[in-house]
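Batch manifest, entry 17 of 40.
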Amino acid sequence: MPTNPYFPIQVFYDGSCSVCAAEIEHYLRQDHGGRLRAVDISAPGFDPQPYGITMAEFMYELNVIDQRGVIYRGVEAFWAIWQAFPAAALYRALGLIISLPLVNPVARLLYRGFARIRPWLPKSHDCRSGSCRIDRKP
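Output type: structure tokens
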């Protein structure tokens, strides 16, 4: 696994994907320290150019960028998100498990499979503003 991220981190997610939006919303509800900043890449005004990542790369897999500019993708992006919750035993365990030499390649393979089917997953229907932005709930 890469080095620990510097917080807060930007989590780039596809808000039009109901599974993706639900997952990120789950993490945001637990983020009481402001360590996560969600960025909806499906929003009409989103511009990938400043990040040096193409829109196709953003749409293919979850991307996280920390305060130093380190990019975490796919399985490593989830690992970086889990680091935002150091007191949570479940996320600590998941981070350790996903780092195991035999587990990590399998997790990467499974994630690539998910990334390939993701475009066909149900789309979010609560996009009244033209964007499926998640609002942080208190």
